[in-house]
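Show me a record, fold above all:
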Amino acid sequence: MAHSCLEALRNDDFVIHLCFIATPDALHNALGKSAEVKIARTALARGEVTEDSIRQFVAELLDHLQRNIHFPFEIPLAAIAVVLETWNSVFAEDFVTGLSQLERAEMPMSIGVAKRSVRRQKMQSGTNSRFYDTVLGSGKHICTPGVWLIESSESCDRDVRDYSNIILLPFGSRSHVDKQNRSGANPDADARVFFGL
C-alpha cells in the first residue's frame, strides 16, 4: 500500500473537490494550492516518500488505464506531476516530461497539467541544469537512481553541452530507449515506452 500522503491524492473527497475544474491551467493552480499536494511535497523532501514509492503508486493507477475509456485517476496522476515539478531530480523531470508528451485521449487533463509542470520545472532550474551535477565523473557508466544510464566519454565534464551520450532507462520498462527515439524522432514513442504502453 502506498504512503498515506500518496493515498490522499486518490481519496474520494480530494478528487470530488477538483473533478469539476474545466481547464488544465485551473486544475494545475488548484493542485498547487491544495494541502494534499503540499503534504506530499514535504514528505518527499523529508524522505518519508521515495521516488520508488511514487513509481509504485503510479503503476497502481495505470493498471486502470484502458484504451478509449476515460482514465478514472486523472486527478491523482496530475497531482503527482505537480508534486514532482518542484523536486530536483532526473526522475522528476523525466516523469513530468513523459506524461506531458503522451497523446492519449483517455487522460487529457493530467497531460495538460503535466505540460504546465514542465514549464514550471524549466522556470525553476533552467533547461538541463541538473545534468551539470549528474555528469561529474570519468567512469564509463554513471547511474542515477534507476532512471538514467550515462555513457561517459573522455570529454564529459561539468560543462558538457552534448547529451547525445545519455540513454533513458524508461519508467515502467526495463528496455532502453534508443538514441534515435531520444533525439526526438518520435516523442510519443518515448512517452509510450515510459508508461509501458
Observations:
- The radius of gyration is 17 Å.
- Residues 108-125 form the longest helix (18 residues).
- Strands lie at 141-143, 148-151, 166-168.
